[in-house]
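Re: the request from the purification team.
They wanted to know what the chain is likely to look like in 3D before they choose a buffer screen. I agreed to run a prediction and write the result into the notebook, where they can find it.
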Amino acid sequence: MREPEADDHRSDVLVLIAERKTDRRVLGSMRLQPNLFRPLRVESETRLPEAYQDRRLIEFMRLGVENGNAGKMVMAALSKAGYEICHASRLDYIIAAGRRSTSEIYRSMQFDDVFQGRTVVLSYAENTHHSIFALPIEEADRRWRAASHALYDFMARIEHRDIRIDYGRVADAFGEP
């Protein structure tokens, strides 16, 4: 996570970075890679079910945060920023791959398990097994509210003063919806 990968420099990719205010030390990052100009990275490893074909998808990748409570808050902030970008860009689904250790996080955030328990070996993630998850962006708000999700207010209702999104950069990367 310390060194950028080739995909981090693509014009159609956004890398979200969470910095500490006091010294700008990086606390976490996440890459957003849409399928608007080329297939998702995960699609080089497996074919997604028919429901995801011909849809505007985005893959959340390379989520890295510090351990502990601070890391949980950073993960929530990066996820919120990613969700807001997806919603504003009128994308259809967020796609995320998770190792066993992170799969419960996606399930708790109301993501669907695309392959219902079957895992996929991802060559770009050290050839490890990952579950593939999807969240329909237009349903996210309803799902979180129906589940009385602890992050509902934070994710869907509250504008957070410390999350700043350059929507000009989003439009440059993803195009106008």
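For the purification team: The chain has a mean pLDDT of 82.
Please add any questions underneath this entry.
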